[in-house]
Amino acid sequence: MSVFAVIAVGAFLWNLPIPKGLSEPGWHIFIIFTLTIFTIIAKPLPMGAVALIGLTISMLTETIPIKDAFEGFSQSIVWFVVVALFIAEGFKITGLGRRIGLFFTALLGKKTLGLSYGLISTDLLLAPLIPSVTGRVAGIVFPILQGIAESFGSLPNSPSSKRMGQFLTLTAFQGTVITSAMFMTAMAANPLLAALSAKENLTITWGTWALAAVVPGLINLILMPLVIYALYPPEVKSTPDAAQFAKSQLQVLGKLKSSEWIMIGTLALLLTLWIFGNTLHVDAAVAALIGLGILLITQVISWDSLLKLTIAWETFIWFSVLLLFAAQMSNLGVIQWFVTLVETLFVGYDWKISFPLLVLLYFYTHYFFASSTAHVAAFYIPFLLLAKGLGTPPYLAMFVFIFASNLFGGITHYSLSPAPLLFGVGYVPLKTWWKVGFIISVLNIIIWASVGPIWWKILGLI
Fold it and tell me: Of 42, 140, 341, 402, whose CB has the highest number of CB atoms within 10 Å?
């Protein structure tokens, strides 16, 4: 569907009678927001371009006053994400990310199952510091995976994919779905979730997020490869050569370079500031800027390399605009109107019945989305307010929807940014990808919905 067709649909909707309970500005921002999300899903243009067009239309129609239209660009959470993406570039430039991957492969790679845990461990270690799922998996983990699989004669788009490549691709992808849920800085949509929660007076810090996720997350990471191993076991189960290959590559890399040591020290400082930021009165965005400053001063990364990092600059644009739209939807009463409308469907039901139904609806509507960010921007606040309105404890609702907003990324070959890349290589047939995606989604829901609340109760978070 072309952008012109979307604009035509918008013009038609614009002239329809305003629904009861909505103001004219509220109806107009609803149309602009909905069509922006739809166009992001359809992808006739890059996400940043679509967001800018939506922002422009909102100003031209005076739906959002010009004096308010650029507020999203000044939000600290936006700068936090962008700077974190800049810092993540250091893993690639210094080679530290590849070294970490080879280390875990050498440590755990004597069996194919162990090799899958080695790749997942790499992702887990990088997740707090690289807010790009694609950057971690497609840029660091998968090249190691593919090199090892091919060395054992496991090639994509052939029967030999079952020797090893299929199993490792499935576990690496489903692993990154889980690790993205475990840290606020593991995926670009996560800081958006934190920012949207804060607008509803539900505060979650980097440390609280990580603490809440650690137990269900680790249990999930341990069990998931075992389930896939039972469903689709690799034909090659022993891989001593993989560990030896990783060791030889580490020898080629040699000792840690000075740039890698600086990177490690900077990352240790960043984690300290993010975890204890409230106590030290250091905002997460300020901490990220401190880390970036160190890397620039020491010339571990150059300003020129950051100027070429298009993913960060595009994120800056679409994140700012979506944050602005979400705020305007709330200010103009659109969210409350939607909540009131849907709430009538659950009148008379106890929240212990209605809340699980809402979660399942929120989770599996992701079959219709190719972007976690678009899904979060469209549905997170309405579903959160619905759950609260039905009597669900607010923080319980927040945690469940936040983690679901990551875990639903594993259900299809388009539901998370690295999915099309990993699927497109050809190790996993479409039917297998969808079947495993659904089965693991059920496993994820069971673990996080059972272990999670118990753990959060022990911590006093709910």
Answer: 402
In a domain, 38, yes or no: no
What does the alpha-carbon distance between residue 48 and residue 86 come to, in Å, rounded to a whole number?
Answer: 18
Q: What is the pLDDT of residues 165-220, one digit of tens each?
A: 999 999 999 999 999 999 999 998 899 999 999 989 999 999 999 999 999 999 99
Is residue 259 included in any domain, yes or no?
yes
Q: Which residues contact 119 (CB under 8 A, 6 or more apart)?
A: 101, 104, 105, 141, 144, 145, 168, 171, 172, 175
Q: Would you say 408 and 172 are in contact if contact means Cβ atoms under 8 Å apart?
A: no
Residue 245 lies in a domain: yes
Range of the domain at 156: 76-191+208-307
The β-bridge partners of 238 are: 111
| Token pair listed for 30 | 């609803």
Per the structure, the count of domains in the chain is 1
pLDDT digits (tens, 9 = 90+) for 242-273: 888 889 989 999 999 999 999 999 988 988 88
Nearest to 173 by CA among 445, 363, 364, 419: 419
Q: 111 pairs with which residues across the strands?
A: 238
Angle (CA) 304-305-309 rounded to 5° is: 115
